[in-house]
Each structure stands twice: as C-alpha cells, then as structure tokens.
Amino acid sequence: MSSQYSTLCAAQASSRVRATFVLRPTLLASLLVMASAAQAQQVALADTVSMKETVVTANRIEQPLSDLVADMSIVDRETIESAGAAGVADVLSRLPGIQMVRNGGAGSSTSVYLRGADTRFTAVYLDGVRLDSQSTGGASWQDIPLESIDRIEVLRGPAAAVYGSDAIGGVVQIFTKKGEGKAKPYVGLGWGSRGTVKAQAGVSGGAAGWDYSLGVSHASSNGFNSKTSAGANPDADGYRSNAFNGRIGYQLSANQRVEATALTSYMNSGYDTSKADDRSIYKMSAVGLNWQAKWSDVYSTRLQYTQSRDFYQTKPSVYETDTRLQSYLFQNEWKLGAQTVTAALERREDKLVNSGLDIGSRERSQNALALGYGLNLGKHTLQLNARHDRDSEFGGHTTGSAAYGYEFIPNWRATASAGTSFRAPTLYQRFSQYGDASLVPEKGRNVELGLKWGKGSDSFSATVYRNNLSNLINYVGKTGACPGNTGAYGGCYANVANARYEGITFAATTRVGEVNLQGSVDFQNPRDTDKDLQLGRRSKRYASLSADTKVAGWKLGAEMQTAGKRFDDAANKNVLGGYTLWNLSAQKQLSRDWSLVARVNNLADKRYELARTYATEGRSGYIGVKWEAN
Questions:
Q1: 424 with 391: CB under 8 angstroms?
Q2: What is the pTM of this model?
Q3: DSSP-based three-state secondary structure for 298
C-alpha cells in the first residue's frame, strides 16, 4: 500500500499552528441581525433561490422546496461560475453544515465532512449516477470538474431509507446542464496565480423534440509546495486535468422522455512522500440512461441504468485501484391528491480490482426495495420512507425514516425527523491484506428538530441534530482486534468504535438596502464516544458570511469563512489551529454575449493547515472571460 494511499485512509499527524478560534461577537451579531432583518424584510430578490423551486434529492422525485421537511441547500450556476479556480469541495464548504479537508492544493486528496460525518458517509450522485470508491470509500471530490456542473443539491441528514448504503451524513446530487432553445455555443478562458489556466468550450440547445448539451474543459496549475515536512520534495505540486460532459435527451411524446448522460475526467496531480516527483493519476467516468414516462395524471415511472468508474494510480511508486459500479433503478410514483406514494426496485453491483486484494479482484451486489409516502395538507407535511437492502455478503438490512413539518403561524414552520442508516464496508476493507472478512456494516440512528422562517427570498433556519453511529470501522495496529486477519502487514480494518455527530446549524438570508446577505454558523461536537475524544480534522465551531451588491453593472461580492481549532489525530494530541479567510469576487456582463469574472481568495494571505504538514494556498487571484451566444 503506497504512502499516498495511506494518507487517504489514515489520519495525518498534527499542526504546528497554535492559533485559537473564538466565535467573534461581531460575527454572531451579524447572524442575529440577519435573522431579525429576515423576519421584517419583504423584498423579493430575483437572484436568490425561491422556495417554489423544485428539487429531486430529498425523495428521488420532483418536489417543491417549500414542501420539504428535509434540511437542504442549492448551489446555482451563477454561484458556481463566480467560484473562479476553485473545486467542487471549495464551493460546498461555503454551505451550512459542511467542512472540507485537502492534503495540499487543488488536485490533492480531498474530503468533505457533512454535519461532521466522515467523507465516506456522504452518498454522491452525478446526473443520477453514483460516484464511489470501493477502496477508500466515498467520492473522489478532487476529480469532479467544476466547469461541467450546472447545479448542486445538498441534503443534510441520513437518507439511507431512500438511497441505501452510505447515506449516513447526507446526499450530494450534482447536475450537468440541460440544453434548450436555439443553439448556444460558448468558450471560456481564465488565468490565475501560480500559472493557473482554465479553458472550456461547448454548445447546448434543443429542437424538434431533441435537447443537447456538450462541453469540454481543461485546467492546469504549477501549484505550490504542498508538503512542508523535513525531507519532502520541495518542488511545486501542480496539476492538470481534462474533462468531457454530454447530455442528450429526446421527447418521445408529451408524456415520455429518454435521456443519456456522460462525463469523463482525467487528473494528474503532484504530491510528496519522497524526494521523487510523486504523481497521482485519477480517472473518473459516469454514464447514465433514463426513460421517464407519465402514464396518467396519477402514475409515472422512471427506468434508469448507470455505470461509473473511479480509478486511482500513483507514480513512480506504483499503486493502482479501480472501482466499477453498475446500478439499475425502476422508480414508481403515484400522486393521489395531497398524497404521494413511491416504490422503487434497485440493484447495485460493485467491482474492485486492486493488487492488494487477496485474489486480485472482488465483487458484490445489493438488491433493494424502497417505499415512500408523503402527505401535504398545507400546514401539515408528513414523509415516511422504508427500504430493505439485501447484500450478497451481509444479507438483509432495513432502514426507515419519518419526518413531520407543521406551519404553526404564517411563514413559520417547525420540523422533526428520525431515521436509521448504514454503510457496508468496502471490498478493500474486507478483502485486502489489511482487510477483515468479518467486518459488519456501520450503522447510524439520527434525530433532529428544525425551525424555519421564510418570506419571499428572506429566510432563517435553525436545525439541531444528533446522529449516533455504531460499529465504526477504523484502521488498527497489532492489537488483537483483527479476528479475520493476522495483522501480518501491521494491522487491519476493524469495527472498533462508536461515534456521535451532534450539533446545531443556524442559517439566514436577507437584504439590507442594496446589499444581499447570507450566512451560517455551526456548533457541533463530533466525538468518538468510546474514548470521549473529538473526531479528527473537524472543528467544533465554524461559520461563513457573504455579501454582494450591484454597482455600475458589476456584481461585487465578499466572503468570510472561519473555523475553530481541530485535532489532526484520533488521540487529540496534534492541534490544527483555527483560521479566518476573506475572499472577494466581481462579475460583469460586458455585452450580450461576453461576461467577466474576477476573484481573490485568501485576501489576507493567511497561513493555515487542514492536514498536518500539508500547506494550503496563500493569496491567489483569478480572472476569466466567457463568450456565450444569446
């Protein structure tokens, strides 16, 4: 097992940064002002997400956002384009309840913690195609090209009763662009600090029942020296990536549609474990076929086939792992007045090829039946879900969830929900030289309460949650905790821990004069409950605040992200200091077809670490121009 792969699986050691974090009174006051202003504000903002917008992530069917009991966020295309040279994880880290950790610069191994849950506990989909690795577990965030994305939906909280294994912390759905209207070709170029270059081109449109969207993109950077420990190669660790995305649909009739989606991505990035020029090679692909049919005013169906690949390789020290997933979904939906009933049959097949496995490659499958019931009576909303997964290795596992929302006065809504979840061990965790075939699934039990206010585009929410996990899988040394493994390679994966993710999230949006404000603050306590220790690389307190306004045709924005101290190791010995970052952005429509975006990240050039001995990027700038026919 290569040392770079070890960094994907095990916690790093600690930071020398001693900075501490205190939730500044000015920040807390700002959020309180936003909440009270949202309560009084009555101005509707056209560029803010409307509560009438529809989402599909909560229950795998289209639903108005206002009907949901679930805790969700939406990232639109404008927000994505203003991100500049950032990655998907950087954009997500500005949302409530999400933290990001990266081992170096863009292109390095990246983890996303949703409500404090490990990155493997978030189920990730791209145009309905599941992205996952059967070696490390979880999506390869660094390999998802931001330029290909049109929209992101984030569901916070477990959703195993809808999606099955892995959805313990939440679900992230990523969507590429759907074409419509006349053909709209586009070309974009961008330049940034440290030799960063980004380029994209494509076309979208629709005619005679067809719609299409095709795009290609390239990104590269010289990077910076990401490894700060003594003896590491002092060279800059840059990256280069290429991606293609396509989405083609045809309306067979007024009530039937077929669609094909595809995305491929290649990433070559530098990392340091020795004085050699160590490289990581990532290849990702996602392909989907869909047939949607509305058979009556009451009954509709969706038939879907998807496949994905997650490939990872290191050089010159060769290590390879290749995950391939296939899934089949038959979704049924009945709309009966105020009631919605869903039933789904799903099959997932996983295959892992890895030289570290006992026989070179391993496979498994899961068959599932999922049922859902929704009731919307205006002031009262009820959602019930149940799912049974039968795994070829573990047998049956049943999960369920129940959620209720009540609008007790106009614009104010209280919510309550409870649910169970699970995650099956990866094939690598069970059958590699570090594996243990006796591993059992990790399990979660979650309860949460929420309070939401919304009027027009203004909103305020508070969500308190507690998610208890049992049978947590960790890598352990030669401690006798490996009943299915001799520990001959130094240790193994084992069900040795229990954990609790609990906290409260506040979020608000409003407008003060000509300035749009939005922000969130999280207080959480992710803990190993057996040892009463804080889980690694997660802050107990973090917050974000952003503001934007329009001046002389420019959209100007400012962002603040702040996080408290963390521990880099499970023993809570190595401290990673707290930090505060300031970012600036500017966008302008230069003409009908030309637009410009500029951005400065880490304006104060703050030095901090997300993982011990791994540097983060200092102050950086980016400017991009785009031509798109309108």
A1: yes
A2: 0.91
A3: coil
* 42 class by beta-carbon count within 10 Å (0-12 exposed, 13-18 middle, 19+ buried): exposed
Q: What is the dihedral of CA 135, 139, 140, 144, to 10 degrees?
A: 150
Give the three-state DSSP class for 197.
strand
What backbone phi and psi angles, to 5 degrees, belong to 581?
A: -115, 145
SS3 227: strand
Q: Is the alpha carbon torsion for 308, 214, 174, 268 positive or negative?
A: positive
**Residue 424: DSSP 8-state:** P
- Give the HSE-up count for residue 268: Cα atoms under 13 Å, Cβ half-sphere: 8
Q: Are 224 and 194 in contact (CB under 8 A)?
A: yes
- Which residues lie closer than 8 Å to 206 by C-beta, 6 or more apart? 179, 180, 181, 212
In the chain, what is the straight-line distance between the N-terminal and C-terminal CA atoms, in Å?
Answer: 52
Q: What angle do CA 432, 433, 436 make, to 5 degrees?
A: 65
Per-residue pLDDT tens digits for 91-128: 999 999 999 999 999 889 999 999 999 999 999 999 99
Contact 622, 598 (CB under 8 A): yes
Q: Tokens for 423?
A: 């995650």
**Regarding beta strands 380-391 and 395-409, do their DSSP bridges make them parallel or antiparallel, or are they unpaired?**
antiparallel
State the DSSP string of 597-608.
Answer: EEEEESTT----
Q: What angle do CA 200, 203, 206 make, to 5 degrees?
A: 155
pLDDT reported for residue 356 = 87
**Residue 588 CB burial class (10 angstroms; 0-12, 13-18, ≥19):** middle
3-state secondary structure of 613: coil
Helix (H, G, I), strand (E, B) or coil at 347: strand
Cis? peptide before 425, omega within 30° of 0? no
Give me the pLDDT at residue 271, please: 83
pLDDT tens for each residue of 27-40: 444 444 443 333 33
Give the position of tokens 């313990």.
Answer: 168
Q: pLDDT at position 52, please?
A: 60
Continuous segment of H or E residues that includes residue 9:
helix 3-9
d(CA 215, CA 204): 8
Q: Which parts of the chain sit beneath pLDDT 50?
A: 1-51
Classify residue 190 as exposed, middle or buried by CB count within 10 Å of its CB (0-12, 13-18, 19+).
Answer: buried
The predicted structure's pLDDT at residue 83: 87
Q: What is the dihedral of CA 117, 452, 333, 385, to 10 degrees?
A: 50
Q: What is the mean pLDDT of the chain?
A: 89
How many Cα atoms are found within 13 Å in the side-chain-facing hemisphere of 317? 15
3-state secondary structure of 300: strand
Closest C-alpha among 472, 570, 564, 578 to residue 524: 564
C-alpha 305/C-alpha 327 separation (Å) is 6
Backbone torsion region of residue 114, taken as left when φ is above 0, otherwise alpha when ψ lies between -120 and 50, otherwise beta: beta
Q: What pLDDT sits at residue 274?
A: 66
